[in-house]
Design brief:
By secondary structure, this protein is mainly alpha-helical. It has 4 helices and no strands. The chain has one domain.
Length: about 90
């Protein structure tokens, strides 16, 4: 399948789950996690767009998206500190 089709299917499933909901706890947990990962990736994208003018970049992958998505602003601050002082 093409990547566009897969992404559209995932987004459609998330929208359906958000509107209809689900009676099953495991599916709710997976949906909650997926929304958090997508939010984390978007947050990192915005950070990289702003940090581009300062020559600053944090890679967007599953690990960094999960940290920024589940921990929020403190997680992003931790990623910035790790990138700035420990890695590079």
């Amino acid at each position: 399948m093409e990547p566009k089709v897969v992404i559209m299917l995932f987004l459609a499933a998330i929208v359906i789950l958000l509107f209809i909901g689900t009676p099953f706890k495991p599916i709710r947990f997976v949906g909650y996690g997926a929304i958090r990962l997508i939010t984390g990736a978007l947050l990192l994208f915005v950070l990289n767009a702003i940090g581009n003018s300062f020559s600053f970049h944090i890679p967007i992958n599953l690990f960094t998206s999960s940290i920024s998505g589940f921990l929020g602003v403190p997680g992003v601050a931790a990623l910035i500190i790790i990138e700035k002082y420990i890695v590079g």
